[in-house]
Structure formats: structure tokens, C-alpha cells
Amino acid sequence: MNKSNDQTQPPTGALAGVRIIDVSRVLGGPYCGQILADHGADVLKVEPPQGDETRAWGPPFEDGVASYFIGVNRNKRGLRLDLATPGGRDHLLDLLEDADVLLENFKTGTLEKWGIGYDTLKQKFPKLVHCRVSGYGADGPLGGLPGYDAAIQAISGIMSVNGEPDGQPLRVGLPVVDMVTGLNAAIGILLALQERNRSGLGQFVEASLFDCGLSLLHPHAANWFGDGRTPVLTGNAHPNIYPYDSFPTATSPIFLAVGNDRQFETLSTVLGEPSLATNTLFVTAGDRSTNRQELRQRLITLLAKRDCDELVTELGQKGVPCAAVLNVPQALTHPHTQHREMTVTIGSYTGIASPIKLQRTPASYRLPPPV
């Protein structure tokens, strides 16, 4: 566990010296801001007088603040400001005088109504990178509409490929669209800052939940472009590869991620039936995918007498990708989680550390989420 209780240490990461005014709320924007803050950016989180609404998205609560908010807002200084008032907007303009980035997710037209939209700001601050996280973008048939993760999962097709074959489409059990939008927003900001080194000018950057939801459809979109067949629910199974699925064992479920012939040969040998790899039904990856139902039944029979943890260890040592199916506490307390320093503590705060590892300028953990 990476521990840091010094809340005053200066940022030293790759983005040290970059100043970001983060007026975003909920998840996509704040997640983006935390990514950049972890790597040294000075991020000032500006909240409305009532606070970011996710402060109330609980239980659980920690000292009256929802864990949801705490999970995506570390390494940020905090300020409350009412941008609906002239005084609040003037204060924001003062903050932008020496800022590199404005990060926001206001409904399209709101900042324009207040006289601080991009067209106005770029005249006053030509070097400013203005990043907006939106639901559907500003125009088009759905332009300007609000977007939430689950609604985007529905309209983007993600739900239609998530669920058991005999069940109903399901929301992915984490806000995958919000989080990938935050990632894309961070990438967009870094691209704009890099380009500014050449041109001396900022620009408008947008990451919409709708666009990012569609971008997650691989390989389902590629498959549909290729053969025109509508992707269907496949449970844990991969639509193109097999065995790439979860299976019961004598103890607990195992997920096998067998991607090539060599791995399948090894799996067959470890399970005591090497002839599986030479069976004409299963010789190639295409054969195994086409004949997956018969292969699944053969594997279930062989796995029924094996201990999950012992099998995971043996297969892993022999180069076959696989894993036990863990719950969240098991994953967060796994020895490899600790070895990779993927949890971080700042005083009473504990969270997931940055997964981005830079050798010379690593992430640092300086501030708990603002109160």
C-alpha cells in the first residue's frame, strides 16, 4: 500500500506546472481531473454552493461525504463558487488568468448563456485549453441532451451485448462509459497541450459520452461491419474466441482466456486429455469458436474434478491466461494488488492508485478529496 500523509508536498510528476480549473461534476470530468492531478497537475475543483451532487450519492458515507465522491476527487484543492452570479463568473475569469486548462461538463449553452462560452474565453485567454465532457455533443439529433452512463450504455449498444444468452440486456456493473470518457478527455487535454507547444494556442476539446460509448464496441462493431450479423448476448463468452469463458470447477469458478493453439494444447494436456487439441472439431481457433458448445461441455466435465486455485497456479506457470473469479474485497486485498502499489492512503483516505506508471516522474498522492 502506497502511503503518503504529507498533504503539502509539491507536485513533482510529469504535469507539474500545469494548472487546471475543474468545474465539472459527477464522474467523467472529475475522473479526468484526478488522472491529471495524480501526475502533478495543480487542479482546483470548483463546486457550486450546494456542492458536487455525488457528495450525497451514498451510502456509504465517510464523515458525511459519499464514498462515490471520495473515489474520484483526490489531489485537488477545493473552492465553492456560484457561477450563476456575476461575481462568481468574475472570480472564475480571475482564476483563468494563469490557468492552462478549463475542464467542465455544463449542459451545452449554459456557459454561453452566462457570457463565458468558448468563443468568449478564447478571445480573452488564447492559450487556454477548454475541455468539455458532454452527453451527446452540442448539435445533431440528440445534441445538447443530458447524458448519464447507463442511458449511454443503452443507446450505444453496450447493454445489448452484456448479459446471459437466455436473459435480458444488462448494464455493465460499473460506469464504464463515464470512466472511458474521462480517460479520453485526459488524452484530449494532453494532445491539446502538446500541440500548444508548437502553435502557442489553446483549443476546444470535447469528449462526449455517446461517442465514447460507441468507441467501446470492439469487436462487436467490427464483426457487424464484417458480416452484417447483429451481435447477441453471450454471457461471459467472447464472440470470436473459445475457450474464452468462465467455467465451474470443483471449488469455485475459473475464467479461461485461451487465445491461441499453443495455449489450447497446454490446457488440454494439463486437464489430462491432450487429444482435445488434435480433435478435428477443435484444431484451429475458428474450429473452437464454431464448435464452442461441444467444447464447453467437454471442458466442464474435465474441470469438475479440479481445484480452482491449484489449476490457476498450474496453468499460469505454463503460459495459459486464466484467473479465479474474485469479488471486490478479494481483488483489492490480493497480494499482487499490494505488490503493484495499487491502493493509496493519505491520512484517513484510501483509494485506488494511478495505473499509469512513469519511471522518472511517477504519480504522487498529496491531497485527500476536498472538504
Automatic annotation (TrEMBL):
Keywords: Transferase. The keyword Nuclease does not apply. Pfam families: CoA_transf_3 (PF02515). One of its GO terms (molecular function) is transferase activity. It comes from the Bacteria. Coiled coil: none annotated. This is CoA transferase.
